[in-house]
Write a structure and sequence with these properties.
This protein has about 270 residues and is α+β, with helices and mostly antiparallel strands. It folds into two domains: about 1-95, no CATH class; about 100-270, no CATH class. The chain is about 40% helix and about 20% strand. It has helices at about 1-10, 40-45, 50-55, 65, 70-80, 85-90, 100-120, 125-140, 180-185, 210-215, 230, 250-255, 260-270; strands spanning about 25-30, 35, 60, 90-95, 145, 155-160, 160-170, 180, 190-195, 200-210, 225. A hairpin with a 6-residue loop joins strand 5 (about 145) and strand 6. It starts with a helix and ends with a helix. The mean pLDDT is about 90.
Length: about 270
């Protein structure tokens, strides 16, 4: 961690307008206003590895998603040029989220939702759980979130392979199963299902190869229904098959329900 911070400090000791670092698509953030290109870090910081940052809790964020004003100002000052719109769409920033603040916020949101449910003000809350579940997936699996070429918003990737992230919110899954759009599954290499309990914590995770999903569940229509009874063998609570896909064990344990966290401790150590 200290070496990473020293590397960012080293890059910011001088402006770099005469270099090609402005062409980088990935930047490491020490704090807002202080960044360094990934290629510089790999070149100047001995043993630097972005995977080690992800395992410590760092995550990828799309510049276009977060709209980091400080980054744009830093970039222009550092390289004496404005970032092109076409370039900005490709830029990813690796940074460390404030997990304590996030965890406290989730607890607060859960209390607020309980009140609103008791007062019959809300009956579902798909938007918040879906975005939170996607954020969990991004942290746990080191996913890159990039602007979609369609109008869907953002897609998730591991390297150049697209990942379909599906979030189910509730203490139990519907008997029909979790809905997955066939067309999106067809575009992806794998499907990650994040099962959120009503209190917004992770009650389970399932990771499946898209080819398997399409082969086993393909039928008429544009929607696939993945029943627990048919995919439970791939649940993280029961299988170690995909433990190598987890890049941030701490995030997985931190945001899991206590029962799942106990199972996952063995899962991650086996």
């Amino acid at each position: 961690m200290q070496e990473m911070e020293k590397g960012v400090d080293l890059f910011n000791e001088a402006t770099r307008g005469s270099t090609d670092y402005y062409k980088d698509n990935v930047y490491i953030m020490k704090k807002k206003g202080e960044y360094a290109p990934l290629s510089f870090m790999k070149k100047k910081v001995e043993g630097f590895d972005e995977e080690s940052l992800l395992s410590r809790g760092f995550i990828y964020d799309s510049l276009e998603l977060v709209g980091d004003k400080e980054f744009s100002e830093w970039y222009e000052k550092q390289f004496s040029r404005k970032m092109k719109r076409s370039h900005a769409k490709q830029v990813l920033i690796i940074h460390l989220p404030d997990n304590k603040r996030i965890f406290d916020a989730i607890e607060t949101v859960n209390k607020v939702y309980d009140i609103l449910r008791d007062e019959r003000i809300i009956f579902n809350g798909k938007k918040l759980p879906v975005q939170l579940g996607e954020w969990y997936a991004k942290c746990i699996f080191g996913l890159m979130q990039q602007k979609s070429t369609s109008q869907r918003g953002f897609d998730f990737y591991v390297g150049d392979k697209r990942v379909e992230v599906v979030v189910h919110w509730g203490d139990q899954t519907s008997p029909k199963g979790v809905k997955v759009r066939k067309s999106l599954c067809d575009l992806s290499a794998s499907v990650i299902i994040i099962y959120l309990a009503r209190n917004f914590m992770i009650r389970d995770i399932c990771l499946l190869d898209s080819d398997y999903v399409l082969r086993k569940f393909a039928g008429k229509g544009h929607t696939l229904f993945l029943k627990d009874s048919e995919i439970s063998g791939y649940f993280f609570s029961k299988s170690t098959k995909h433990k190598d896909k987890v890049v941030n064990k701490n995030a997985l344990l931190k945001y899991a329900l206590p029962k799942l966290a106990m199972n996952l401790t063995e899962f991650l150590e086996s």
